[in-house]
Amino acid sequence: xxxxxxxxxxxxxxxxxxxxxxxxxxxxxxxxxxxxxxxxxxxxxxxxxxxxxxxxxxxxxxxxxxxxxxxxxxxxxxxxxxxxxxxxxxxxxxxxxxxxxxxxxxxxxxxxxxxxxxxxxxxxxxxxxxxxxxxxxxxxxxxxxxxxxxxxxxxxxxxxxxxxxxxxxxxxxxxxxxxxxxxxxxxxxxxxxxxxxxxxxxxxxxxxxxxxxxxxxxxxxxxxxxxxxxxxxxxxxxxxxxxxxxxxxxxxxxxxxxxxxxxxxxxxxxxxxxxxxxxxxxxxxxxxxxxxxxxxxxxxxxxxxxxxxxxxxxxxxxxxxxxxxxxxxxxxxxxxxxxxxxxxxxxxxxxxxxxxxxxxxxxxxxxxxxxxxxxxxxxxxxxxxxxxxxxxxxxxxxxxxxxxxxxxxxxx
Amino acid sequence: xxxxxxxxxxxxxxxxxxxxxxxxxxxxxxxxxxxxxxxxxxxxxxxxxxxxxxxxxxxxxxxxxxxxxxxxxxxxxxxxxxxxxxxxxxxxxxxxxxxxxxxxxxxxxxxxxxxxxxxxxxxxxxxxxxxxxxxxxxxxxxxxxxxxxxxxxxxxxxxxxxxxxxxxxxxxxxxxxxxxxxxxxxxxxxxxxxxxxxxxxxxxxxxxxxxxxxxxxxxxxxxxxxxxxxxxxxxxxxxxxxxxxxxxxxxxxxxxxxxxxxxxxxxxxxxxxxxxxxxxxxxxxxxxxxxxxxxxxxxxxxxxxxxxxxxxxxxxxxxxxxxxxxxxxxxxxxx
Lengths: 412, 335
Prior knowledge:
The complex is a heterodimer. By secondary structure, chain A is an alpha/beta fold. Chain A has 12 helices and 14 strands. Chain A folds into 2 domains: 74-188 and 318-378, Rossmann fold (3-Layer(aba) Sandwich), CATH 3.40.50; 191-314 and 396-410, Response regulator (Rossmann fold, 3-Layer(aba) Sandwich), CATH 3.40.50.2300. A 7-stranded mixed β-sheet of chain A has the order 7-6-8-9-10-13-14. Chain A has a 5-stranded parallel β-sheet with strand order 2-1-3-4-5, with helices on both faces. In chain A, strands 11-12 form a two-stranded antiparallel sheet. In chain A, strand 13 (394-400) and strand 14 (403-410) form a beta hairpin. Chain B is mainly α. In chain B, a hairpin with a 2-residue loop joins strand 1 and strand 2. Chain B is globular. At the A-B interface, helix 1, helix 7, helix 8 and helix 9 of A face helix 2, helix 4, strand 1, strand 2 and helix 6 of B.
């Protein structure tokens, strides 16, 4: 009996061998009038950005060095420190930490304390840490929360105690429609990112036929909508995928048959990576474009070499190109600044500048942010009455040599 | 049933659209892709069907038997130097590497299946536990293996490995068939034919059928029931290992602690659709489920529909033929 089992497995292996060898021989046969979408006419050779201009009058955390404040004055970061989305949170609070360190070093008369509260990026877990932070009288301002879902769940708690908070990463446009007076967004939202992405694909990349694929998250659906409007006639079709999906063959078949030259994936890297990998394996030669939810090193790991066709849009500024910031960040953390590090740094700077000017309780600091009109390292900060920035920027990124590199501001 | 659902929806809503043109346009590519995935379902489905045949037990841990094979493929290929780029090797060398990965996957899956049987089922059988208890240990074994992998490898999928770049081989109805699809479908079908023949013709196969038909009589006739049961689990494991290789070939980023769960449910559904306990039914069920899901998704225009359509069809088929399409169980199948 055992012998038979061995024979069977041997037979299986042998058949497979024969089979695959024959495939190898046939593979050379041409006969491939590629029905796959071609990248003809696309401008995929987008130049990599190596430096960016920082505003000359940028406010820095150090200030004039003469500030005085009570040594109980505290700023807080509330957001993910652990969990699946921890990396984004770590990028942010290291930026905040750097700003506070620089401030305290330059101002011996004003030592601001820094506290962190962990939400794991999860809306259901965020209310606890936020309530706890609002109960600590010494905390007068907050950088956070990074994600749209948790921001939506906790905005009311901040509102009740009139505590100012600047989100360095949450992009859902609906967040500023709640009537909150304490919520400020330190970057562009998806109503800005979608049209910018559309303009990037049809303009910079020169795509004539864009296929839009969105997932089933609030983020994916919202951004899919604003991108669709931006694309107009250039959109040749759209499809929806599910969180956790692994096989995208039906969607890919539609994309190939539509002869699309660019695909916009409105969702996160977990599905975006296998999707792009299967798309390229089916012979797609065009560009894959994803938003900030896809812009992650994990995307490159999980898509493998297929990620070489990938571009990203992000309302985040490439902090790694600001040498003074990047060097100081590296000294502090032994790592390159990540996505949203500079946004965290700038948000903290806004609050620190307020403290230096004597706004040292919650009400005064809120008032300060409301009237703020100055540049940070990444961009100019001036909010409208809803808490949206008046002139946010969206940046493009691409994959080069297995790394995500910036290619400049897009959608202008 | 479906029509009442449709009329219950306000007329101005467009949540359900039938895009017949898209289906017509994508029919053949949907068919070939569906068959490719269906072949993988079918290989996994055989594991459910064989075990059900001899034990009347749904082995819920079979999805973890499958994912252990995926990890074996991943570790073998990374050890052999495969990475995100397709390897720059002669085809023969790639082939030998892939066969090594196949052997590793088969061993890993077969050992997992063996251990599950030994640790989760055999002690219960010795004590004549009621059937419900098996169901609980099956689900328990599934979770234990899943979260052991989680603790070991973390929540993220393993980095993608490329075995080879699929090359177009020929064109049917304007749709390109590539080397990957051919390898998966042909190899899977050959394996299933071998298993079918093994069950029908070999001495062990006869033993398996005898135990499926009537364990007590089979024992009286000199069949070693325990040995047959272990063999059945191992055959299921071998097939799951092969399925794992093809799955990782098609979806390199699918190696994740819970990556077998959905596939396992679908393979189980495929086994039921074809007639659980029926070897040929598992093949038919797997291919059908792959096809129906793909057609449904294209016809209705979004991936959310894939599983809705597949499972509505499953329910409809079972309403008409509760025993599944091919129906007969392993023991009564015509030898």
